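User: Can you predict the 3D structure of Nucleoside 2-deoxyribosyltransferase? Sequence below.
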Amino acid sequence: MKAYLANGLFSIGDRLVNELIAIKIRAAIPGIDLYVPQENAEINDKQSFADSLAIANADMEKLEESDVLIAVLDGIEVDSGVAAEIGAFSTFNRPIVALFSDVRQLGRDNQNKIDALIADGTENQFIYRNLFVIGIIKKNGVIVSSIEEVVEQIEKLNR
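Assistant: Sure. Here are the predicted structure tokens for Nucleoside 2-deoxyribosyltransferase:
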């Protein structure tokens, strides 16, 4: 199985999350061919140079080869590169496993939070994700809230 891990890769937090996800997936599924863009020094060593076409071509080639896309949706907004990768990958009608671990998902049934939002729109204690991106994921995949669930979903697809 070939998989592509889509997430931001410019902050230490993103790079560490990517490393952790990759370690867990590779440990659970020996032999998986997991592409992690930050590991591709040819286009992502920022001391070097790769233009936009080199980056787009390298990543599109890996997306086209992949059986599944693993997309991290965390952050202030979905990373623009991740959103583009989700859109491009969705054209292949292959599964997408998205990780959305934001703790603001908790308490969705808390009536106090709902009442506060109704009374004052600035009291939004929930989180928004672009509904087009979410819909594209749901057409061909799932959204989970932990790395363990990501691994479980990839294991199911690998059977």
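The helical segments are 12-28, 41-44, 52-65, 80-90, 111-119, 131-140, 147-158. Residues 12-28 form the longest helix (17 residues).
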